[in-house]
Design goal:
The protein is built from 19 helices and 22 strands. By secondary structure, it is of the alpha/beta class.
Length: 606
């Protein structure tokens, strides 16, 4: 138990009454590069009481995951914890002997990663993996295993326990990973974007389950996320990070409903709404390099209301109200508002010839997964393809791109029939249809620089045309990446930066149809909004057509003019996005709308 460890316990308050220490207590945490010259996380403090959830939010590169990993007494390669304290259940995690730290991890503090595959051993049955996480033994262990699976919504316990991870869906794997985290009844859990890749229905179930389990087991949860709508529906407290610092924190209703920092305002103006098509606004500029932060307020170069003093004076973290702190010299001077409504896109009086036509498309993954898909895709528009996990979304677009060989039917592109696989298709057809994967490593060679990946693709598919380095730099700038990214390897970029580079690789080929398969699922809301703005601009300038596979219904509402709803490999709804989402005919559409995360606080569009 926690009291058996040599780590320094948090002392009880003076006055004689002993209160339980917070599940998580972080004070003045600083994480630097190994040479100690560049601080990545700079003196942050927060606490999470047993049974409550703190949402730690911010853009990619803000330091939120680095701060979260410190709960495990861990710093990623190239970094080290250089200052402050981290206590779990009253036990200091920093400076513990290796054996005691190892025992604390997985017993008193557990971790749920974004990708459940990194938490589950592919060669072990789930009974073995879950059993290793339990404190109970003997017959109580079997009873506890069944109870645990029931708690995470997997009642078919015998089948699940006999299974290997690959035999479960992504949503089931994530619930197993969460069950493993709660299994030892730890003092604290770190959750790092655990629902990013889940469809809205599975995400809603998982979030409800996390909240119920945290309360039931009196576990303190730090939930790291870029999705403010999810955090608003889940967390009790919110801390907003920017450039390694917490710039605003407090009760969820205060931070979101009465935000004071311009950065929090900007993040919320980038959040889509499932009930309204919004003109999403990405943040201008980029977060500073940790090695070259400006003096004064680090957000000042991107702030619309910054004054001269902001460039020289560092704002203190001050109490702005009950359970609400902020670091800003101009806190509260912006009026809270949501983005403007997106103007309706008029349909042409005479519908143009379809760019893409599918006729009686059927596909197999051992069994039939697509059933008689027939639909026309209009040119110059974004068509969203939505549905729960396993509905056939990705299989459908992979057939269109020639990446799934087991299909029958007919696919016509600009009136020409496409061969089954990409290898059988003409180079010009390959150039005109570009695919951007959910995992950017599937689009980028990890051993090539970003510039090499862009230029090789462009020169090959554009028929030997001379493509200059300056064009590659301009394409990277169009997706919000600095010129220096051209010489970086994919592994040297953040997840959000890698995805933008993958989109740039598709764009430099000058396609007519861009297939985006969950491309924003790993991006923070600001970069997501920037990508939406980019796609809208490309459509206006180039007449680009986009197939947009997504599970984020709010994002779909703002990005797509048309929508296709899949269920069980069949089309159950399609048409104008606003009409389908507002008055869809199918129960599946109604369920997707019902389960879409929304702000818990009233905050209507202006």
């Amino acid at each position: 138990m926690a009291g058996h460890f040599a780590g320094q316990a948090v002392p009880p308050p003076a006055g004689g009454t002993t209160r339980p220490a917070p599940g998580i207590q972080v004070q003045d945490l600083t994480v630097c590069t190994v040479d100690g010259n560049v601080p990545i996380v700079r003196g942050i403090s927060f606490s999470v009481t047993p049974g409550s959830i703190l949402g730690l939010v911010g853009e990619s590169g803000s330091g939120k995951t680095t701060a979260g990993l410190a709960l495990l007494g861990y710093a990623r390669s190239g970094l080290k914890i250089t200052g402050g304290s981290v206590s779990i259940g009253g036990v200091s995690m920093l400076g513990l002997p290796v054996r005691e730290l190892s025992t604390m991890r997985g017993r008193e503090v557990t971790y749920v990663p974004q990708d459940p595959a990194t938490a589950l051993h592919p060669g072990l049955r789930l009974r073995t993996q879950l059993s290793e996480c339990l404190r109970e033994g003997g017959t109580k262990r079997e009873e506890r295993l069944r109870d645990l699976l029931h708690e995470v919504g997997l009642p078919d316990s015998e089948r699940i326990l006999k299974s290997y991870p690959h035999e479960l869906s992504g949503g089931q794997q994530q619930r197993i990973a969460i069950a493993m985290a709660f299994a030892p009844q730890p003092q604290a859990i770190l959750m790092d974007e655990p629902t990013t890749a889940l469809d809205v229905t599975t995400q809603t179930r998982v979030l409800r389950m996390v909240r119920a389990l945290a309360h039931q087991h009196r576990t303190a949860v730090l939930y790291v996320s870029h999705d403010l709508a999810v955090v608003a529906s889940l967390a009790d407290q919110v801390a907003v990070m920017y450039s390694g610092e917490i710039v605003e924190s407090g009760a969820c209703s205060q931070v979101i409903g009465h935000r004071l920092h311009p950065y929090t305002h900007a993040l919320l103006r980038a959040v889509p709404d499932p009930d309204h098509a919004l003109l999403l606004e990405g943040l201008r500029g980029q977060a500073p390099d940790p090695a070259a932060r400006p003096s004064g307020c680090t957000f000042a170069p991107r702030c619309a209301i910054a004054e001269d003093i902001c460039a020289t004076q560092v704002p203190a973290h001050v109490q702005a109200g009950p359970n609400h702190k902020v670091s800003c010299l101009r806190a509260g001077t912006l009026e809270a508002s949501r983005p403007r409504l997106l103007p309706a896109t008029p349909r042409p009086a005479q519908p143009p010839a379809p760019l893409l036509s599918l006729r009686f498309l059927e596909a197999w993954h051992g069994r039939k997964v697509l059933h008689g898909i027939s639909i026309d895709i209009a040119p110059g528009r974004t068509t969203a393809i939505v549905g729960e996990s396993g509905s056939g979304k990705t299989t459908l677009v992979r057939c269109i791109a020639g990446l799934h060989p087991s299909w029958s039917g007919e696919i016509l592109f600009s009136g020409q029939r496409l061969r089954v696989t990409a290898r059988q298709r003409l180079r010009e057809q390959l150039r005109r249809i570009q695919y951007v994967f959910q995992n950017p490593y599937a689009s980028l060679n990890p051993r090539r620089t970003i510039g090499q990946s862009l230029l090789v693709a462009a020169r090959h598919l554009r028929g030997g045309e001379v493509v200059s380095r300056s064009e590659a730099v301009a394409t990277l700038a169009a997706v919000g990446l600095p010129a220096a990214a051209i010489d970086a390897l994919p592994g040297q970029l953040s997840g959000g930066q890698r995805q933008r580079a993958a989109i740039a690789r598709g764009l430099i080929c000058q396609p007519d149809l861009l297939i985006c398969d969950e491309v924003t699922s790993a991006l923070d809301v600001s970069i997501q909004a920037t990508v939406v703005e980019l796609l809208a601009r490309l459509q206006a300038e180039r007449g680009l057509s986009v197939l947009f596979v997504a599970h984020n219904i709010g994002l779909v509402r703002s990005v797509a003019q048309d929508i296709v709803v899949l269920q069980g490999g069949k089309i159950v709804d399609h048409g104008d996005t606003n009409m389908v989402l507002s008055s869809g005919r199918s129960e599946e559409t109604k369920r997707l709308m019902r389960d879409a995360p929304r702000f818990a606080v009233t905050d209507s569009p202006c």
